[in-house]
Specification:
The protein is of the alpha/beta class and 324 residues long. It has two domains: 173 residues, 3-Layer(aba) Sandwich (Rossmann fold), CATH 3.40.50; 130 residues, TPP-binding domain (Rossmann fold, 3-Layer(aba) Sandwich). The chain is built from seven helices and 17 strands. The longest helix has 16 residues. It is globular, with a radius of gyration of 21 Å.
Length: 324
């Protein structure tokens, strides 16, 4: 029997949505290994929403508190996580492949002396060993890897593991972590203007490319995103970001953010392989481009060949009707 440690994330004292996905993935492994899921969250004090992790299959929720854990503290978080992993004798440690997880997971793996299976899209157990599936070659192929190390340290691609409610009679535990949080101290986090959704977490992403001709025309995409009732974020291709039209935080692709929303709308994006690597795992892809031979149509579920300046306003109007 091997238990699984699910490392959750919080921001401003509240649990992040991606944590439910981590618990769901950890539950899948724990069921196959015959163990329990222990969810670990670090914060200055109690984390709002952490107790709800039991709804997604956590048997125990452990809150590690420290005065320096209000914001992400790389050294302190890594030390607390690795010490818990060693003490618990876990068969697997599961993170989100978020901005925080991409920094924390390799630190923990190094302290545990094992490798890291990063950005995975599926997990299973084969012959008592954790096996993972992850995209390779810019998403053109899938690699299946058996992790022989114990614990198996894994990070899950966000928006791939749909949270599944499997309520458990979970317990709670609070542990005070002694010492400082490390040499790096985060004084504050500057949120995006207007509290807009992060493209990496939004269930719907509307992205634009050079086909929009100038930055002012991104207003068309912002209006389309707003028509979805606050559930959509606006993304951009690398060419647009390099030109200074949009901030780097909006970039989707191999050198930007990897997204897996329920719906991805690509507007005026040709579909270079670097961009496809960041969005091809979206559940439904809609492409709007006047070039019928654009590579984006090869991965799109639905394609509209036409002038985006005619198509997008009409699409926005129809979406508004659907949402009242």
């Amino acid at each position: 029997m091997s238990h699984v440690l699910a490392v959750l994330e919080q921001r401003d004292g509240a649990l992040r949505k991606v944590s439910h996905e981590v618990v769901t993935g950890a539950r899948r492994l724990a069921d196959a290994l015959g163990g329990e899921v222990h969810a670990l969250v670090m914060g200055r004090g109690a984390v709002q929403g952490a107790d709800a992790s039991g709804r997604y299959g956590a048997d125990k929720v452990i809150t590690a508190t420290n005065a320096g854990f209000g914001h992400y503290a790389p050294e302190g978080y890594a030390r607390a996580t690795s010490e818990r992993a060693k003490a618990g004798g876990y068969g697997a440690v599961v993170f989100a492949a978020s901005a925080q997880g991409k920094d924390l997971a390799p630190r923990v793996a190094a302290q545990l002396g094992v490798g890291l299976a990063a950005d995975v899209t599926d997990v299973a157990v084969d012959g008592g060993k954790v096996t993972v599936t992850r995209p390779v070659y810019a998403g053109k192929a899938l690699l299946r890897v058996k992790v022989n190390a114990t614990p198996a340290v894994v990070s899950l691609r966000p928006n791939v593991f749909t949270p599944v409610e499997r309520p458990k009679a979970g317990t709670g535990e609070t542990v005070a972590i002694a010492g400082d949080a490390g040499r790096v101290v985060v004084k504050g986090i500057k949120a995006s203007a207007g509290g807009s959704l992060d493209v990496a977490e939004a269930p719907i992403v509307v992205s634009g490319g050079r086909g929009l001709k100038e930055p002012a025309n991104f207003k068309l995409l912002e209006e389309l995103a707003q028509a979805f009732g606050g559930k959509a974020a606006v993304g951009a291709s690398r060419a647009v970001v390099d030109a200074g039209w949009r901030p780097h935080g909006d970039q989707v692709g191999q050198t930007g953010k990897t997204v897996s929303p329920s719906l991805y709308v690509a507007v005026g994006i040709s579909g270079a392989i670097q961009h496809l690597a960041g969005m091809r795992t979206a559940k439904v892809i809609v492409a709007i481009n006047k070039d019928k031979d654009a590579p984006i149509f090869k991965v799109a579920d639905y394609g509209i060949v036409g002038d985006l300046f005619d198509v997008v306003p009409k699409l926005t109007a129809e979406i508004k009707k659907l949402h009242g």
